[in-house]
Amino acid sequence: MSLSSALLTAQSSLKATSKQTALASRNIAGSSDPNYVKRTGSLVSGAHGSVYVNVGRSADEALLTRYIQANSLNASSSTLATGLGRLSALYSADDYSGSPAALIGDLRDALQIYATQPGQSTTAGDSVVDKAVALAKALNEGTAQVQKLRADADADIANSVDNVNELLAKFEEVNSRIVNGTRSGDDISDFLDQRDSLLKQLSGEIGITTMTRADNDMVIFAETGVTLFEKTARKVSFEPTTAFAAGTGGNNVYVDGVPLSHSTFEQPYGTGRLSGLLQLRDQIAPQYQNQLDEIARGLIDIFSEEGGQTGLFSSSGSFSEPGIAGKVHVPSEYIRSEGGSSELLRDGHGDIYNPDNASGFSGRLQQLIGLVAEKRSFDSAVGGGTNLSIIDYSSASTSWLESQRKAAADSESYNSTVSSRAEQALSNATGVDINEEMALLLQLEQSFQASSRVLSTVGSMLDDLLNAVR
Length: 470
Prior knowledge:
This protein is of the alpha+beta class and 470 residues long. 60% of the residues lie in helices and 9% in strands. The protein folds into two domains: 3-58 and 432-469, no CATH class; 65-422, no CATH class. The chain is elongated. The two termini are 24 Å apart.
């Protein structure tokens, strides 16, 4: 090898080593960033013994795709579990002592006591009315909280849509830089990291799939195939509902005019936070509201008097309208503190059950006790069962809600574990190992010293040659 060739080789080696050292330092600096993907430098031989460093990126598209899917499912199941936990908490305190089933049981027990001493209207009778008032208030509060959950979900949907639009706008800018950088041969590693980070965030809001085309150009689809991004970000729109009441329907989410509702997602619990919120607002909460309404209608019907006269339970709205559980109440004519009397429950309006006004009359009270225990038809479409007593139906409604909550909690636990492991696998495959980078730096230091010695030796030999010529 000539001295000039040795000199060029040493210089090339120094440049390559310097670039590899900078790359290792870059990896160490990015080791704390969960979205940083390890950079690799491979040596490529050139002409005249020269050596170049080809910079690569330790990306794993398969693991990234798996994490995106797991993250979407985890976000959806977590949202559902949180919402169902709120519904469950309505009546679950003190071992469900404030649930409709428990309160109806208390009302029945109070009726039985009143029936054994029908002349004690100021004690036993008023106790029945107090239990009825507590039951009506529980149904009112349950309805209010169900609608609040729907309103909160609707507001969260608006926030989620804003997040999706913001992320897509950022994605458009980063993707454009990647495409232009690919065409010009620039290092686009940092932009690729940013794009992956945006995909991870986006998958938490909505289920997505991606496709990479020429020049590293990427297209994003929703789970249904609706395009979210292709060259430019698609507009995701949503109009929040100002107020929610039973029977009020929430608005759809649209992508370029195409509705993207919970029913369009393929997974059992949908994918992404947006899907979970849509299911809470449009399916789960309304179904539970319907069950509370069935309980309220049952109570109104059981305690109504002959001829359709309103009894112990009344409603300010129509018997068949949605949300009757929020309007059911005990009329003032039964409440002593409001000028009423609990004897009305024993005797009926106009003393229709007790025309002789006998203080020991208990026939109507016994009849009511029997009606409370009697099986009746409930709407099978709303869940909770049918052909049950009012108490059994109320218990079945609570069981339905708890089974939904448990299923969502189990799904959240499972999906959280899968998401965590997918994230760990991705980190292991693409992240930075500090120990490896430090060991590499030591090797590069030795290589740098060796190349320096070659340069020094060649320099000395050239000096000797020049001195000999002189």
